[in-house]
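Journal club prep, notes for RB
We'll compare a predicted complex against what the paper describes. Inputs for the heme C case:
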Amino acid sequence: MKPLVLLLLLFSSLLVANDKARHYSSSEDCKACHVQIYNEFKDSMHANSTPQKDAIHASIWDKHPQNVKQSRYGCGKCHTPAADDLDNMQTVGKKAMPMIDNVTHQEGISCAYCHRIKSVELHAKHNTNIMTDKEKRYFGTLNDHMNSPYHEILTEGNEHMKNGNVCIGCHSHKMNSSNLNVCSTNIDNQMNGANCVSCHMPKIKGTVSSLKDRDQHAFHGFAGSHFHSDMLTKYVDISLLREIDDFVVNIDNRTSHALLLHPLRVAVLKVSVTRGAKITKLKNEVFVRIIGKDGKPAMPWAANTTLKDTMIQANEKRSVKYDFKIIKGDKVNVVLGWFLVNPKAVDKLGLSQEKVATEFQVFKEQSFEF
Ligand code: HEC
Ligand code: HEC
Ligand code: HEC
Ligand code: HEC
Ligand code: HEC
C-alpha cells in the first residue's frame, strides 16, 4: 500500500503547488498607490463580471445547462479567471460554483490577472491565457517607469500589452457545443494605427501612481456598451444626404469589429423630423444578429446557426433610406443607440424589472438643419 499513499501525497502536493501559482494579489492592494486607475476599474464590467454583480449574466447563468445539469462554471475561464478554484470550476462533478463570499471569485478580471498575462494560446473553441508563474511581477508599458516598492515591473516581452493581444485570450471568439461562434471580435485589430487598447483604454488626465506625478494614464474603466461609450463615439460617424424626394442616413463604423458583439444586443437608429411645432417620428431601423435553432431564436448554448445578421460590420458604411421629403426649415434628429438585451428576450430572461437590461442607451445623437 505504501507506494500508493506516496503517490497520492505527491499528487496532492502538486495540486497545492498549482493553486499557489494561481494566487493573484487582490485589486484592493493596488488602490494604495494607483488610486485613480483603481477607481475607474472598480466600476467597469471587468470588476463586475460575475453573476452576483451583473444581472444580465445572472439571468443567462440561471438557465444555463452547466448550472442546471452539471454544477460547473466553465464561464470562469473568462469571467472569474482569478478564482482560487478555477480548475474545479471548469470540471464536471466538482460542484465549484461562483460564490458571493469568495473574494477571489468576486475580483472578476482583476488587475493582477490581466497584468500577468504572458501570451495567448489560440484554440478553436476559445483561446487560453498563458500566465506568468511569479506573483507581483506585472507587465507594463511605461518606457521610463520608476521602481515600485510593491511589485516588479516587466517591460521585456510587453508588446501584447500595447498591441491589444492581451485582450484576445478572452475576447477573440467563443464557440458553443454546436460549433456556432456565439460572440466574436475581429482580432486583426489594427485599424489606422488603433487597437483594442488605444480605443478602449485611451490616455486620459491623471497620474499613474501617487508616487510620481504624471500627466496621464491609460483609462481603466474600459469604455464599452455598458459604460463610457461617449469615449468611443469618434469612431462612428453619422452623416445625412438629402435627395429630391427622400434622404439617406449614413453610419460609418470606423471600428475594427462589428458595432456590437454580444448576441443579446440590439442597436437602433431613431430618426425624427421637426417641422415648425410638429415632430414626425420615422420608422426605427434595427441592427441585430439573431442566433437560433430550427428557424427560431435560441439561447446561446442551444443555437446552432445565425438566423439573421443586420449588425453593422467592421469598417462598414451603412446607408439607411427614408422616404420623406425634406423641405427648407426642417430639422432632422438622428439617434444611434442600443438595448444591452434584446427587448424580445427581456421577459423570457426575467429581466423586465432590471434597468440595465431594459433601458435604451443613447450612443450618438446628431441634428441636421435645412
Ligand atoms: C472565452 C471567454 C468567455 C467565456 C468562456 C464566457 N464568456 Fe461571457 N463574455 C465574454 C466576453 C469577452 C464578454 C463581453 C462581450 C461583449 O460585451 O460583447 C462576455 C459577456 C457575457 C455576457 C453579457 C453580459 C452583460 O452584462 O451584458 C453574458 C450574459 C455572458 N458573457 C454570459 C456567460 C456565461 C453564462 C458563460 C458560461 C456558460 C460565459 N459567458 C462564458 C467572454 C466569455
Ligand atoms: C506601494 C505602491 C504600489 C502598489 C501597492 C502597487 N503599485 Fe504598481 N506601481 C507603483 C509605482 C511607483 C509604479 C511606477 C509608476 C511610474 O513610473 O509612474 C507602478 C507601476 C505599475 C505598473 C506599470 C508599469 C509600466 O511600466 O507600465 C503596473 C502594471 C502596476 N504598477 C500594477 C500594479 C498592480 C496590479 C498592483 C496591485 C496588485 C500594484 N501595481 C500595486 C507602485 C505601486
Ligand atoms: C480574462 C478575460 C478577459 C480579458 C483578458 C479581457 N477581457 Fe474584456 N471582458 C471580459 C468579460 C468576461 C467581459 C464581460 C463582463 C460582463 O459584462 O459581465 C468583458 C467586457 C469588456 C468590455 C465591455 C465593457 C462594457 O462597458 O460593456 C470591454 C470594452 C472590454 N472587455 C475590453 C477589453 C480590453 C480592451 C481588454 C484588453 C486590454 C480586455 N477586455 C481583456 C473578459 C476579459
Ligand atoms: C483587462 C486588462 C487589464 C486590467 C483588468 C487592468 N489593466 Fe492595467 N493596463 C492594461 C493595459 C493593456 C495597459 C497598457 C496601456 C497602454 O499602454 O496604453 C495597462 C496599463 C497599466 C498601468 C501603466 C500606466 C498607464 O496608465 O499606462 C498601470 C499602473 C496599471 N495598468 C495598473 C492597473 C491596476 C492597478 C489595475 C486594477 C485596478 C489594472 N491595471 C487593471 C490592462 C489591464
Ligand atoms: C477603432 C476603435 C476600436 C478598436 C480598434 C476596437 N474597438 Fe471595441 N468598440 C469600439 C466601438 C466604437 C464600440 C461600440 C461602442 C460601445 O460599445 O461603446 C466597441 C465595442 C466593444 C465592445 C462591446 C460590445 C458589446 O456587444 O457589448 C467590446 C467588448 C469591445 N469593443 C472589445 C474590443 C476588443 C477586445 C478589441 C480588440 C480586439 C476592440 N474592441 C477593438 C471601438 C474599437
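Talking point for the session: The pocket of heme C (ligand 1) is lined by residues 54, 56-57, 60-61, 64, 66, 74-75, 77-79, 126, 170-171, 174, 183, 225, 261-262, 340 (CB under 6 Å).
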